[in-house]
Specification:
Largest sheet: 13 strands, mixed
Number of domains: 1
Helix content: 25-40%
Strand content: 35-45%
Order of helices and strands: HEEEEEEEEEHEEEEHH
Shape: globular
Distance between the termini: 73 Å
Length: about 180
C-alpha cells in the first residue's frame, strides 16, 4: 500500500513538472493595436500590454490589428493585420545548450528581429508557412503569407510593421 502511495505521488509530481514546463512564459506582449487576441487551448482572450505568452499559443489579429512581442531570448516579433502566428516550439536554456524556436505563420505578415537563439544557434530558428520554411542566417526576416503563398514586401509594409514594434502604430509609419 505504501509503495502504491509513493508511486501515485511520484506520477503526480512528474505530471505537474511537465505541465509547469509547458506553461513557462516564452515572451511578453509589448504593443497592441486594434483587434488582437491570444488563443491558448480552445480559449481566446483580447491581447493586452504585458500579457505573457506560452508555447503553443496563437496570436491572432483582425483587419485593424497588430501586435509587438518580445521573446524570452530578446527576439522581437511584429505581427501585422489579418495574421495568425503559432508558437510551435520554444526552448531557451542556454546553460544546457538547449535552444529552439519554431513558429508557424498561418496567414498574414510578420517581421522578426533575431535574439539570442539565432545568435547562438541560427539553425535552431525556423518559421513555417503553408508553402515555405524560412531559417535565419542574419538578424532580420519579413514574411507575408497570403492566399496560400508567400507575398513580396514593399517598403511601406515594412515601415508599418516596424512602427507597430516601436509602439507608434500606423500613424508614425504614415508620417515617414
Amino acid at each position: 500500500m505504501r509503495a502504491l502511495a509513493i508511486g501515485i505521488c511520484a506520477a503526480l509530481l512528474l505530471a505537474a513538472g511537465e505541465a509547469t514546463a509547458a506553461e513557462a512564459p516564452i515572451g511578453v506582449v509589448k504593443t497592441v493595436k486594434g483587434e488582437a487576441y491570444i488563443e491558448r487551448g480552445q480559449k481566446a482572450a483580447p491581447a493586452k500590454l504585458g500579457d505573457t505568452l506560452r508555447e503553443k499559443d496563437e496570436l491572432v489579429t483582425g483587419r485593424d490589428g497588430a501586435l509587438g512581442v518580445i521573446m524570452k531570448d530578446d527576439a522581437v516579433l511584429s505581427i501585422g493585420a489579418n495574421s495568425r502566428l503559432q508558437f510551435t516550439d520554444f526552448v531557451f536554456e542556454p546553460a544546457e545548450r538547449k535552444l529552439s524556436t519554431v513558429n508557424r505563420l498561418k496567414r498574414g505578415t510578420l517581421v522578426y528581429l533575431s535574439g539570442l537563439i539565432a545568435k547562438l544557434k541560427p539553425e535552431a530558428v525556423r518559421f513555417e508557412t503553408k508553402t515555405a520554411v524560412c531559417g535565419i542566417r542574419g538578424t532580420y526576416l519579413a514574411i507575408a503569407e497570403q492566399d496560400g503563398g508567400l507575398r513580396d514586401f514593399t517598403e511601406e509594409h515594412i515601415a508599418r510593421l516596424n512602427a507597430v514594434l516601436r509602439g507608434g502604430g500606423e500613424k508614425n509609419a504614415e508620417e515617414k
